[in-house]
Inverse folding.
């Protein structure tokens, strides 16, 4: 799974929470841990942009 840069803090709506899944991860890129926390991966087929990843 590729995690793109988190560009905004986002509070998911109830519908979006039902269509997504949350995971607790340590994001490690080039050997450096950038962030540890819960990422919400929203799989919204109604949007044309790629799957968005939000940091809580």
């Amino acid at each position: 799974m590729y995690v793109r840069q988190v560009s905004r803090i986002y509070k998911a709506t109830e519908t979006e929470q039902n269509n997504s899944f949350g995971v607790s991860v340590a994001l490690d890129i080039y050997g450096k841990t950038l962030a540890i926390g819960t990422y919400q991966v929203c799989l919204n087929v109604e949007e044309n942009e790629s799957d968005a990843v939000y940091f809580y």
Remarks:
- The first helix runs from residue 14 to 18.
- The two ends are 18 Å apart (CA to CA).
